[in-house]
Amino acid sequence: MTDGPSTPSLRIRGTVELLRQQSRLLPKNPLQARALLDAVSRSMPWPEVKEQDTTVAGVPCRLLLPDGASRGLLVYAHGGGFHGGSFATHASFLRPLATALKRRIVFPLYRLAPEDPFPAGLDDVSNVLSSVLSESDDVLLAGDSAGGTLALGAWQRVKEKRLSGVVLVSPWLDLTASSPTVDDAPHDYLEADVIRRLAEAYLGGADARSPLASPAFAELSGLPPTLVASGGQEAFRGEIAAFVEKARAAGVEVEHDIATDLPHAYPLVPIFALERRRLIDRVRAWMDVRSRSGRVT
Q1: DSSP assignments along 279-291, one per residue
Q2: Which residue out of 78, 83, 256, 264 is catalytically annotated?
Q3: Can 17 be counted among the known catalytic residues?
């Protein structure tokens, strides 16, 4: 959906305005923004899941171990504009997701910009994914926002190995910020100026059209079955729609779930608990169908 967005409810608009203030801080003062996001996230109720800190391929990771886990692993690359994000910002989504899917989740704590620009974070996620694939034949790959960028970049590096599927939540696919919807998202908290500043700092002079930096320019044949979830109000809705069309044209099995009134990366927003639960149920149903058809081991 790339047409101009409709006007969402007052509840959603108020939440978006608060998030807009936070997002503006990220390119200006990443350390302060990270601390603020972590503090806000830690105030949220989190379901209990066994966890442990570990290292995979030299990269620090958080490992989630839900009761009854029997369906392999999920490697999850977090979002945060390449500048922020942590397990604290994603726990309220990943803990119930791990429980619903009955999968162990490997959460790389990859290096962040501007201290470590491209391709440092990509290297970390790629190394973790490669290591996990060498130990399991049932691996899902997932990521949100900038984590979706990293997930698809990592897939390009290991595409000769088998993945069970890919889940992308509001993926940031084009760091050139050339999609018209980047400048036409009045009800999203991500603003065009913030998007471009984050991309510039992350790239550190690298080519924004590199497929490893911007998966919009990647060759997608061979991409495993993919579920894309996005908000109908988000600035990235244009590039996400174009990516889905390109993937289908390349023969990829893709499903696209659009939450019409919601902004970017909505499952990570505290107030959208019901919408987050709906998406988790959607991901589980998608996996169940694939399991029954024998397409997931």
Answers
A1: HHHHHHHHHHHHH
A2: 264
A3: no
